[in-house]
Amino acid sequence: MSSAVASTNQAADPVARVPPPMAMLAELTHRCPLACPYCSNPIALTTADEELSTAEWIDVFNQAAALGVLHLHLSGGEPAARRDLVELTRAAVSLGLYTNLITSGVGLTEARINDLAEAGLDHVQLSIQGVSPEGADRIAGYKGGYERKMAVASWVAATGIPLTVNAVCHRQNMGEIEAMIELAIRLGARRVEIATVQFHGWAERNKAALLPTREQVEHATRTVAAAREKYQGILVIDYVPADYYSQYPKACMGGWGRVGLNVTPSGRVLPCHAAETIPSLTFKTVREDTLSAIWYESDAFNAYRGDAWMAEPCRSCERKQVDFGGCRCQAMALAGDARATDPVCIRSPLRERLTRDTDRLSAMSPATLSYRGR
Ligand code: SF4
Ligand code: FES
Predict the structure, then answer these.
(1) What are phi and psi for residue 57, nearest 5 degrees?
(2) What is the pLDDT of residues 74-105, one digit of tens each?
(3) Which of 43, 105, 211, 340 has a 20 to 30 Å separation from 32 between CA atoms?
(4) Complex ipTM, two decimals?
(5) Using CA atoms, how far apart are residues 275 and 349, in angstroms rounded to an integer?
(6) Could you identify the atom of ligand 1 that is nearest to the CA of residue 318?
């Protein structure tokens, strides 16, 4: 551990002071049949031959369970692109992990869903891109995707596995939020998660086309509030508002290295999805070290734990235990410094500039979408 890091965090006895992770996101593969312009996966994707093997993933799950992880999110790319998905699910379930499959639905058949149910899969999170075949398939860049998703939802419902529908909303589908909520109810979902697009990875290229307008965001907030009242007891509605229009940043990942970790298809262990955009940090893989050592002892995980790393205004701010200074990757992208106050915060010296840029970009006539390359 570098002396700079050691002097600013819990390195003296990290195991005693850092709680174990509660959740792990296993990005089983970057392969994906869809081409969503809002994809937050990195520009350079892991190829199939670099992916962890079945045995390696099961070993990671074993380590995660021993470390204290309770929730395992099986994600991608499209996790159904892994032929061993049922085997991996069965192994995770046998370790007592709560398993959540995060899927576009493309690549799942009725038989495969039944196999996943039989393996003990606990929950399915199915993405939608819109509420009509034309609109949804245009955003996903995949013809026939919408119809497949509708079928997948009905097969999941038939197994009794609880279903969450999730949608990334942006300038081009923001007017459909009410219809998305109604669609989730029709599909038998117990929960809908509507998250405003974040500009990490590929999505950054589509900022001018996807950034919602202030009016859209205000309308969406009212729509969600009314729907929560209307569907109370029927559907849980999670909503992640557009933070570019918020006063304070979100507590990204519940705080760096506090609640969860991500493992990339090649086994790199990250504190968050976009952490590799921070050039000063290096991240180990599960082929190089144990999950436990990486969680408790690595420089990367310790870099932004606690508050000693913070600069002003965060350091003396009463909200620092609420939002932890916001998102490190957003600070890197917008301020050029991962230790800076997230520029979304009204106390950031960069907030005014962000507001000007946001208003300018969101007022641009829709640019051509740049689809995620496969
Ligand atoms: Fe959060 Fe820092 Fe802003 Fe305070 S100054 S609200 S800790 S981002
Ligand atoms: Fe990395 Fe927010 S995405 S800290």
Answers:
(1) -65, -40
(2) 999 999 999 999 999 999 999 999 999 999 99
(3) 211
(4) 0.91
(5) 23
(6) 4
Q: pLDDT value at position 12?
A: 45
Give distance in angstroms: CA of 1 to centre of ligand 1: 27
125, 153 in Cβ contact below 8 A? Answer: no
Token pair 């740049």 in the structure block, residue: 370
Reported confidence tier of residue 123, pLDDT bands at 50, 70, 90:
very high
Q: How far is the CA of 349 from the centre of ligand 2 (A)?
A: 20
Closest ligand 1 atom to the C-alpha of 324?
7
Closest CA to 70 of 19, 28, 119, 126: 19
The residue assigned the tokens 């109810």 is 185
Which tens digits make up the pLDDT trace of 127-176?
A: 999 999 999 999 999 999 999 999 999 999 999 999 999 999 999 999 99
Q: Is the Cβ atom of 20 under 6 angstroms away from ligand 1?
A: no
The pTM score is 0.92
The sheet carrying 269-270 orders its strands as 236-240, 191-196, 163-169, 123-128, 98-103, 71-75, 23-27, 260-263, 269-270
